[in-house]
User: Fold these one by one.
Assistant:
Number 1:
Amino acid sequence: MAQPAPIPRGVPEATVARLPLYLRALTALAERGVATVSSDELAETAGVNSAKLRKDLSYLGSYGTRGVGYEVEFLQHQISREIGLTQDWPVLIVGIGNLGHALSNYGGFASRGFRIAALVDADPQRTGEEVAGLKVRHSDDLDDVVKEFNIAIAVIATPAHAAQAVCDRLVDLGITSILNFAPAVVQVPEGVDLRKVDLSTELQILAYHEQRKNGAALALTAEQAVELAKAVGG
């Protein structure tokens, strides 16, 4: 079974997590016809510190040219190759509810090296339903689906209560790269790479920051009121 190519040894996980940011920035630059970019410009586009960017790229053996910077097209290809995006990764989505539908219909995966190859759901009423040009298969067929499409990466988009069981089954079938969208904590054995996307948690973090901004605004207004009262009373 095909698996995503490993990042070179010695590359910190934090660096690996930032490589897609650099690739997205480079893709945007390439689409604008930019041939070379300085580390400062690339860092600003990616939203990171320039020193951190230079350190990250040095792990890949890319140091740029003094006074010129980085060749956009070459660095774009280099990062794509290192994180395995020059290949065609067949992806399975398990759970074809609203989120599963949305992920299945997202057109941006193909241009980034990912192909939605199969869809699976436990609801027999969804079996045979066509989503994004693919027929939904029943979860009873999961073993056959993984083998038939040589699945490399699985996406869990099931309800929370089903996530762990689905994950366990995927691992048993040899899937070692899993992206979990279910709002549940999922445990995997050593050797399995699990990434979690928790939309509710991210919204809660934004709510926290929004509340703090509102609190700061209220505090400022109160301070202004005090100054105004002093001025009037004085």
Number 2:
Amino acid sequence: MKTWALVLLLPALLGGVPVIDRPVVDERGLLSSSDTEAVASELVRLRDETGAQMAVLLIGTTGGEPIEDYAMRAAEAWKGGRAGQDDGLLFVLAVDDRRARLEVGYGMEEYLPDDAVRRILDAQGPLLRQDDYRGAVLGVIQGVHERLPSAEGVPALSASKPLSPAQVNNIMLGQIGMGIVGGILLGCCVGLWRERLGSWRLAGCIGALLLVPPAITVLLVNSGRIPTFHFPLAYVVFAAMFFVVTLGAQYQSLRVAFVLGLSATAGCLVSLSDYHSTNVLKMLFDAGKSFSLLAVGLLFVTYPPVFRILIEILFFFLNSSSTYSSSSSSSWGSSSSSGGSSSSGSSSGSSWGGGGGSFGGGGASSSW
């Protein structure tokens, strides 16, 4: 019974470890904001070029606990790197204890054996004795970077290379095209062609239109940063839009359907024409706003009775976009580096949560 009590109380006796949710966690404020940004940028570059996810944890003391045990507990709580790849790295610097530790995930031990890690850490001793913490941390990152192969040389790691904004725009343009074709065909299947196709053919056509384009998109999209399901979601939104337009053309007013279809197409193209971002959901909201504004203007001129209905649609999109923008201010890509807010382009504020990687005790420690 006493043994179980000690096991349950062990975390409390040892003390907690800081939550690692960004590239640099500076508990002691050893780095200035510019230094933190510089270190975070190097960590992001390390992940982009090698696939390895590394975090830096700067603390005062481990409270008497060996830094090896402390670093292992922090790494296991963080779970840096990806599950199955175990390509996480955690650098812990305890300045009051004058101790440093680089914890290495299972997948990195081939490139970073213990003796190599120790040499990297020992080389930072002169900088640490001069309190040049920025230089020492950057030196460790550079030493790690030099020993890891590039992502091109490691096929398993290349999947983490993110998509550029231009690539995202091109994919979104493809989703618009597929959505227009898919929505129109789907509207014809359940409308004009329903009796001609029959039940089984109708079900097969609808299934193909709903499943094949998203499946192809999932296979083609290769990004470690953008959720893949956002792109199929874009296709579904565009297809649903033109499905409604097609049904409106068949059963309601051809003029209204034409105006809505033209507004939808133009709104999407306007939103994406000069959009330099990888935020697919924000693109969808902006496309919806542009579509609403164009539809209101055109229908107000061509069909005034619809004006009141479209105003309600416009308010819906505007409110949804505002809600999304406010909620995303604390989400991935705009986290704060020290509890506050930072810009979406800041590396130091980027979410750095682990992906389920494992650490097996590999690594080395150093004193200065």
Number 3:
Amino acid sequence: MNAKQIRAAITTKTAEVRSAIDKQDIEAAKKSNEELRALKESLKIAEELEQQEEEELKRQAEEQKEKEEREKNNDPEKRDKNFNREDIQYRAIGKYLLRKADNPPALTKEERASINIGNSGAILPQGFVNQLIVLTKGFPSLKQYCHVIPVTTNTGKMPISKGSTTRKLAKLATDTEMVKEMITTAPVEYAVEDYGKIYPIENSVLEDAGVDLYNGILAPDVAECSVNSENAEIIAIVKAKAVSGASGTDYKAIQKTLNKMVLPSLKKNTIILTNTSGYDYLDEITDNQGRPLLNESLAVDGGYTFKGRPIVVLDDEDLTPTTAGKIPFYIVNLFALCKFFDRKSYEIATSTEAGFTQNQTFTRVIERFDVIDGDDRCDFYIEL
């Protein structure tokens, strides 16, 4: 018998033991109980065997996978078919941007097919954009808290529902017609803007780095500049739409705002946005038993929450208070407030003429996005 069959037999034998006890048939109860013990011992052995068999099958599968991988690496045809497409794209972009050099590297047929050439440069592959997303995780990006809407055009409209006036369903009775009411929507227009930067690069560095320059050297700086630009647009909306939160001179004003002013339907994505001074202030607060009010949480990027809401910390220069000497706090639902229209593409181009007298090549990187305000019912400002 296998483990499953033994478990079924144990269930049956247990019932026999209980039945014999109920009938006060001691001899039958003893006999059935001995058989039950034997079944339980058999179950332990069967489970151990099944575990060993499972581990052996897993080991064989791993060996087969390693064998296939070795065969693939030893076969040039298979290896070429599995070549990383992103590597081909990076190499193609590098060659394209170096095309004005004295001895420009020639693009292969596969490389020409792997990139998209725009009017003034090459469109970076999605892999480069994904890499920027990974790199920006080292910086306090506000985009991740917004409602990000991928778009493929520079302009357009998106309707936002404001619900209906009647907030209940009508109780129906015989021959009673249901209430007719339209859901009101407001169209939000977006116009994607270009955000860019020019990097002067020494030609000697360009020759040494070659096609790896764009992926290895530019990406970290582009990522940081991208986050700072996005944050600036988001913060501008937060500041423009914010209303005063609960009054108070200490952290209890934040608590009152969260408890009494934030609508239950908007609490889920609400964050507490502050600067390093605000974080330092909250970090020093303790309850009556000396326990910190900030709670550590692995579920949020910042690592800390206050009253269950993530603490998002920006630099003091990025988030300044309205009144000098005060500490700013925004209790805001960025997902509801900010509609982030993302073109998800970076265009890169170079010019050797612009930096001819300095023996430099100018590299230009452009990102496209727009941020529009939406539901501003959860955007409160407090100064402490």
